[in-house]
Every structure is written in structure tokens, then in C-alpha cells.
Amino acid sequence: MLGLKYMENGREGKTQSRIKEEAKRSEAQPNTTQPNPTPPSFICSVGCEIALRQFHRHFEVMASKRILKELKDLQKDPPTSCSAGPVAEDMFHWQATIMGPTDSPYSGGVFLVTIHFPPDYPFKPPKVAFKTKVFHPNINSNGSICLDILKEQWSPALTISKALVDTLSLIPL
């Protein structure tokens, strides 16, 4: 972040590289004045906002790559009774289809599920919810699924395929 402007006590300050140069020069010269007990406070200005946007953009790019890899893996080796993919061209919004398991009250059912990936996926879990009305003790009236791996037990090692398989295994209850 060298070269970004900072604010020093309300005025435009020096760049980081210039501050470092002055610090080296002052180390070489004997200090004849009393040290300032409170160092000047540097308040981040526009440069920090740009850096923060770049940081978030970096996470989104990482998430996009991971989501694309998972999509390819799903297409190559889909889980039994499940399919999923992006809605239109939005890689962060998918729709999945889960077929009701045989030998269960849900046999023959086709259940639509929405999947929303956060910008910091896979570090945060995807939001997975049923669009199709399902009467099930682990699925609320809004379609939200009570499944630990979609909440506090999520790990970046998990995938959307694993989440779909676990959701499918939840249904026969």
C-alpha cells in the first residue's frame, strides 16, 4: 500500500514511503528535542476504501473460482437424486432439485431448493432453503433448513454437493 495518501491531524499527510525515508534520516541524526509523547494519528482516507474494495473483490474472485470448480465437479459426478446449477449467469445464486427418497412420505416428490453463496464462500456457508413447500420437522415455514453443516458446523472443506447429500438424507425423517 505504499504511495497511498493518509490524513495527519486533519491535513493531507505524507506517503508511507516518505515517512520511512524521514524515519531513517532521523535515526542517523542525534535527537536534540524531547520526544513527542503521543505519536501523530494517521486516519485512513480514500486509500483505505479502495484497499478494502480490492480486498473484498479478491474474496469474490476466490469464491467464484471455488463455486465454478464445485459446479464442474457436480456436473461430472452428481449426487444421487440431486442436481444443481446457477440461475441465469449468476454464479452466486443457484437452484437445486432434490427428488423425494423412495420408501418415504416424500417419494415421487420434486423439491426445488435455492442456494445463495456469500461473497466470502467457502469461509462462510451457503444459504440453502426449500422453495417447494415441505412439511418436515427440520424445515421451517420459510424453507430454511435446520442442518448444522449449513450453520455453525460449516467448514471450507465442505462442498455444496455434501450439503445437498446431507439435506437429502434429512428428508426421510
Automatic annotation (TrEMBL):
Stretch list, region Disordered: 1-40
Catalytic machinery residues: 146
Keywords of this entry: ATP-binding, Nucleotide-binding, Transferase, Ubl conjugation pathway
Domain UBC core: 62-173
Domain of life: Eukaryota
InterPro entries with a match to the protein in the record: UBC, UBQ-conjugating_AS, UBQ-conjugating_enzyme/RWD
Pfam families: UQ_con
Compositionally skewed regions (Basic and acidic residues) per UniProt: 8-27
Family: Belongs to the ubiquitin-conjugating enzyme family.
Record-given protein name: SUMO-conjugating enzyme UBC9
Originating species: Sesamum angolense
